[in-house]
Amino acid sequence: MSGKPMLLAEHVSKSYGALTVLRDINLRLERSQVLSLVGPSGSGKSTFLRCINSLETIEGGMIWVNGSLVGYKQVGDSYHELTERELATQRATCGMVFQSYNLFPHMTALENIIEAPVHVRKVPRKQAIEEARGLLAAVGLSAKADFYPRQLSGGQQQRVAIARALAMKPELMLFDEPTSALDPQLVGEVLDVMRKLADAGTTMVVVTHELEFAREISDFVAFMDGGVIVEYGAPGQVLVDPLDGRTRAFITRQKSAA
Amino acid sequence: MTDAPFPKVPGGMRMVPRRHPERLVTAGVALLALALLIQLFVTSPRWEWPVVWEYLFSPPILLGVARTIQLTLVAFVLGLALGLIVALMRMSQDPVLRFVAGIFLWFNRAVPVLVTLLFIFFLAALVPEIGFGIPFTGPIFFAVDTNLLISQFTAAVIGLVLIEGAYKAEIIRGGIMSVHVGQTEAAKSLGMTRGLYMRRIILPQAVRVMVPAMGNQFISLFKSTSIVSVIGYSELLTTVQLIYNRTYQTIPLLVVACIWYLSLASLAMYGQRKLEQRFGRGFDADPVPAKSSWARNSWGWVTNWRRA
Question: Choosing a second label site near B111 at 20 to 30 A (CA), which of A121, A123, B241, B287?
Fold first, then answer.
């Protein structure tokens, strides 16, 4: 492979006091690739995702997004912690979608989407609105532009949240269990949007319990347990014919639960 | 009738709403109390209603009202600004700012307003001159007699602003803490800096929670401005007291004060309701609240008692 990887993690580790949540995580993802992180609750997959855009700090190792070191800059022979403004600029290169949507409840769907482009990227309001309408159309919610989050279903809210993240034109999209809070019949509409994004060549890291979906859209799957990557590889291998006993047990459990 | 329509039932059966015979009793008791009150107000000559009318719009009372309003507004607005600064300091990442805000809150919430007011008014005894220069050693460019700088009005404003700032800081902090942490994370993930997401995302949602407490604070401040009488500043209540001490028309003059307090506080409460509607955007199931129908509802309350 050539050029800068879109995501590179080397020896990432983190602990809360005595509890180790991440231990020696190494990952590499090229542009337009999709990586799924699967594993039981508390395995550290969400924590790792949140480290990629500095919502959490790491204690060992390094993460690069599109060639730039997350949280630090190199000055001479030392690494300096980024200022708040630099950190904010860096965070904007990743779009993040949360399990609980986290839409801004006091703003309409359209206002949610244009908020960051207008105030962070300084896009003219008119242009931002135009782009936002395009994004709303792409997630199938053109008619809901002027609705407040409370007036939307969970699936609709999550689709607005995806549009909001895309509006910042991120290099990398992070999904933190985007369908876990949804009623089963609403999961499909969100997965459809994500599938379209993957097909369009968006680089994505997805934390999910939807193994079938992960197998379908991912280029790579990492199975995590107890803060380490237990098994890593192509979805057809990790999710279908895993080598590790823990992965096998997890997949069997998930299948019987579904 | 304003009640919700009852569903039509096939087969000619009637739907009978719940009856409330006990409401006749409460209505009766309330009417009796009202009648007694009216009798008290109308028949007793001690009210001296003509005196009330004579003073209600008299220049000294109006001046007192104006001073009350002025003091309330100035102290509220400055207190709000101070409260916001202190609240943000208290929640800052910087341990020094947090500590300074903590000391400020501790002192101003613990010391009675009365003491603060007197302290500031008699500041001259402690610091005879207030000047501008290089601290401790250097030259002083100019200095003013503290007594000239701190009039009764400024002492009143400073004292009230300190106390208000402390209470409002806590209200604001509570409001900010009530906003779900996911909002901050979403804002951060979109590249917003703390200043930006506080202003655009967190505070607008926090205000919704803060408005009722702020309304309380405003009304209580408005009434408690009378405490500044201890440093000789005369607002509405003090003016009223000065007059009845001279004329012995105590009751009618207290009625005058009541009428003004009631009307101004009602105005403030109305403002609070408007603010709540404004900041409830996106939170209420019905974005445009239905028109208040107090009269209709109470009529329905009376007529409902045996509807069949």
Answer: B241
**Residues B293 and B236: beta-carbon distance below 8 Å:** no
CB contact under 8 Å between B283 and A150, yes or no, is: yes
Which portions of chain A are predicted below pLDDT 70? 1-2, 258
Q: For chain A, say whether B182 makes contact (Cβ under 8 Å).
A: yes
Contact (CB, 8 A) for B67 and B232: no
One-letter-per-residue 3-state SS of A225-251: ECCEEEEEECHHHHCCCCCCHHHHHHH
Low-confidence ranges of chain B (pLDDT < 50): 1-2, 286-308
| Cα A211 from Cα A37, distance rounded (Å) | 10
Task: Report pLDDT for B292.
Answer: 44
Please tell me the number of Cα atoms within 13 Å of A94 on its side-chain side: 34
Chain B residue at shortest CA distance from A175: B189
pLDDT at res. B6 = 63
The pair of structure tokens assigned to B49 is 């209603």
Q: Is A69 helix (H, G, I), strand (E, B) or coil?
A: strand
How many angstroms away from the CA of A216 is the closest CA of chain B?
Answer: 27
Quote the CA–CA distance of A75 and A130 in Å, as a whole number.
40
pTM: 0.82
Shortest distance, CA B290 to any CA of chain A (angstroms): 18
- CA distance from start to end of chain B: 12
Q: Provide ipTM, 2 decimals.
A: 0.94
Q: Which two tokens stand for residue B286?
A: 């019905």
Q: Does B205 touch chain A (CB under 8 A)?
A: yes
Question: What tokens appear for B147 in the block?
Answer: 């007594």
| DSSP 8-state code for residue A208 | -
pLDDT tens string A127-177: 999 999 999 999 999 999 999 999 999 999 999 999 999 999 999 999 999
